[in-house]
Each structure stands twice: as structure tokens, then as C-alpha cells.
Amino acid sequence: MSILPIRITGDPVLHQRAQEVDEINSETRQLIQDMFETMDAAPGVGLAAPQVGVGLRIFVFDYEYEEQRLRGVAINPSLELQDLSAEELNPETESEGCLSIPIERFPLRRAGSAKLTALDIDGNKFVLEVQGWMARIFQHEFDHLEGVLYVDRLIEPYSQEAKEVIEEYGWGVPGLSWLPGEDELEP
To answer: For 44-49, what is the mean pLDDT?
Structure first.
């Protein structure tokens, strides 16, 4: 297993729709194991294949949900969402971050529940219906497979703040990455 470099916003693979996985083979399984190791080292609660430079529709996740640990992989997922709340955005409870925009966090409204349908590492179909942060994780990772970063969904003033942060760090250009466990990221 290997820890893989995580691509930073601006890398083309992060900004285009990932391709369907045609076959789950030894290379796919190795990628998934490397993604788990990379996510754990980062540390993160989810990681999509495009974040490690691979344009395939795969994401891994690991989160304590309803007193149990949900750790798994979603291959070729689909996601059904409930309607978004009309309540005012709460920056304290609705902020999220991203390993491809490290260090920073911004508030973003997400659906409160989600239904994930995907294949597991053995090619078996599964369905997970979740709420709260687990639903947020699935939406965030699914967006990566669509070529969308969470900052692309921000409303003002957070959208402008994110643009300024990305510019300040020199991100937003192709070829930037960081390696969990080796690169020190500081605000």
C-alpha cells in the first residue's frame, strides 16, 4: 500500500467528470487500498479518486455514524438527496473542508439526508440511506466525481473569501499536490 499525493484545486483532474469504472480488477483494488491509506494519513473522512489524480468514479469514506463506524468504498455511485433547508446558513454547524483545498473551511448548505447506491470492492450493489454529516460526506465526495469542489458551490461572501484564499496560497493552477505525512500544511 502507498500514500498518494493529494491534488490541490486547479489540477485538471479535479475539475472534470470522472469516468465509470468498467472492471473491478487488481489495479482497482490496489487504488482503493492506497486511497484508504491516504485518507487515513491525511486525516480525512472521505477521499475521491480524482483527488489522487485518477479520473474514475470511486470514493472511500470512514466516519462514526449512529454509534457505528461506516468505512467503505463507493464505485460508480448514484446519489439521491432530499430538498435543501430554507433556513439561514449556519457557519458554525455547516462548515466543511476538503483535502484538495487544505487548511481552510467554509460554510455550505447541503441536503440533510442522502441515499447512496453504489458497488462495493467485490462488485456487489449496496444502498445506504444516511443523514447529517454522513450525508454531507457522501455529497462532498460525489461532487468530486462530477468535477465539482465544494468551493464551487459557496454563496457570497464565502465564495469570494475562498477565491482570495486560493489565490493567496498560489493554488488554482495545474500540478500542485501535497503528501500526507510528509508535507506540513499551515494556515
So the answer is: 97
